[in-house]
What we know:
The chain is mostly helical. Helix content is 77%, strand content 0%. It has helices spanning 9-19, 22-61, 68-84, 88-104, 109-119. Helix 2 (22-61) crosses helix 3 and helix 2 crosses helix 5 (109-119). The longest helix is centred in the middle third of the chain and has 40 residues, at 22-61. The protein is elongated and about 65 Å long.
Amino acid sequence: MGFPTPSWLEEAIAKYKRKLDHVKLRPQLIALIPKIVDKTAVTQAQMHRIKMKVKALLDVEGVYSDLHPYYYAYSLALDKSQRTFKFMVDVIREHQILRDRWEGRGLETNILDKIDDLLIFRKG
């Protein structure tokens, strides 16, 4: 015993298929590719810069390389939150959420403090 098919379903499926027609989408995607490539290059450079800064800190602190990805993830999330949120109150709240999350995963508080000192550029 199934549900009855709604009367609008066939029309909705046809509309969905028209939106995904490759002939229509190809020119739109080709127009977007240069913008996407430029944004990707800038973002990759920023992420690499952050990772190299954090790697130097982690190496000095003697953190095992097995734990580096977790500290990188925290660092990238911290950087993203500073660039994303417009108001300082949101940045502060998001920072506390990130700290709670990563401290709860077992990362050392003193290392996270040093990463904060290294990466936080929006200070009140």
